[in-house]
Amino acid sequence: MAFEAVIFDFGGVFTTSPVQNFAEFERRHALPEKFIGGVIKTNIHDNAWAKFERAEISLDDFDDAFAMETKAAGFEISGKTLISLLSLRFHPQMVDALARVKAAGYKTGCITNNLPKIDSKGMLAPDEARETVTRIHENFDHIIESSKAGVRKPEPRIYEMMCDALGVAPETCIFLDDLGVNLKPARAMGMTTIKVPIGDVTPAIAELERLVFAA
């Protein structure tokens, strides 16, 4: 079956990954490797991070709840400290890849887990151009933000919502994300998935272009 749509994550795909910032924080504070990610993945659908990405709790509630969860895991980190680690930088080559996919006539979508009142522009490093986010968004036919939709990856419903919005079957979609946990539900639905390596998006772009521009 021919592909009709390409669906992208945002953070970690068009930008650097917060995981890189988490790792640096962990090194500075002599924490175990992937400590923060481990807390975020524990009780993945109902922990403080999940609730905040679905806009079910306020920033102050998240601040306290994440502190409690991390303290229970061995080192207290407030929710506001975590948010301070979300400063991201662009991968220009992925921005260009999206433009090529769009120009080739594919439907395009973005499924992003984000936070209430902190959109894609709000997560950028201070010296990154906010206008680039606008340019990226203009190349999407549809965008689903977890904090507005009340559902987040890896909940299967969010992938179904995107397919409905684009008017495509999952089997005709390619989905890119930097987190394997978010790729699994898409793959189970029938999507072709591409894992975007943290720190180097080049292999993912090569795989994407192999699939969409194959003769």
Automatic annotation (TrEMBL):
It comes from the Bacteria. The keyword Lipid biosynthesis does not apply. InterPro entries: ACAD10-like (IPR052898), HAD-like_sf (IPR036412), HAD-SF_hydro_IA (IPR006439), HAD-SF_ppase_IA/epoxid_hydro_N (IPR011945), HAD_sf (IPR023214), PGP-like_dom2 (IPR023198). GO terms for molecular function: hydrolase activity. Keywords: Acetylation, Hydrolase. PANTHER family: HAD FAMILY PHOSPHATASE, HYDROLASE, PUTATIVE (AFU_ORTHOLOGUE AFUA_1G12880)-RELATED. This is HAD-IA family hydrolase.
